[in-house]
């Protein structure tokens, strides 16, 4: 499960699957090949989560920048009418 399928995962889906991958790796009892496959899947899922978080950060930064740009205009208008 890679590529476009991963892109369709929500943050929560990717996070939950990543938690399961980590749990399985920590529990042990897997072959080297299975462990490597789990690790690779974990890396893919971590990238999906990172993309979601970076997107959320960009949206938050943009909203905060808009708010900061709007505040001086509002303050200036209020001071001019006083």
Give the proportion of residues in helices: over 70%
Calculate Rg over CA atoms. Answer: 22 Å
Our count of domains comes out at 1
Distance N to C terminus: 63 Å
Output the CATH topology: Helix Hairpins
Mean pLDDT: 87
Shape: elongated
- Pick out the low-confidence regions: none
Query: What is the helix/strand order?
Result: HHH
The number of helices is: 3
GO biological process, one term: DNA catabolic process
Function: Bidirectionally degrades single-stranded DNA into large acid-insoluble oligonucleotides, which are then degraded further into small acid-soluble oligonucleotides.
Protein name: Exodeoxyribonuclease 7 small subunit
EC number: 3.1.11.6
Brief description of this entry?
It catalyses: Exonucleolytic cleavage in either 5'- to 3'- or 3'- to 5'-direction to yield nucleoside 5'-phosphates. This protein is mainly alpha-helical and 82 residues long.
SSE diagram, text form:
Elements: H1 4-7, H2 11-27, H3 32-81
EC number: 3.1.11.6
Catalytic activity: Exonucleolytic cleavage in either 5'- to 3'- or 3'- to 5'-direction to yield nucleoside 5'-phosphates
InterPro entries: Exonuc_VII_S (IPR003761), Exonuc_VII_ssu_sf (IPR037004)
Description:
This protein is 87% helix and 0% strand. It is mainly α. It has a single domain, classed as Helix Hairpins, CATH 1.10.287. The longest helix has 50 residues, at 32-81. The protein starts with a helix and ends with a helix. The model has no long low-confidence stretch (mean pLDDT 87).
């Amino acid at each position: 499960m890679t590529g476009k399928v991963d892109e369709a995962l929500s943050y929560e889906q990717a996070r939950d699957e990543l938690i399961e991958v980590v749990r399985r790796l920590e529990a042990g009892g897997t072959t080297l090949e299975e462990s490597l496959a789990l690790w690779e899947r974990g890396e893919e899922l971590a990238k999906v989560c990172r993309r979601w978080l970076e997107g959320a950060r960009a949206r938050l930064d943009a909203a905060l920048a808009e708010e900061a740009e709007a505040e001086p205009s509002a303050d200036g208008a209020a001071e001019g009418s006083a």
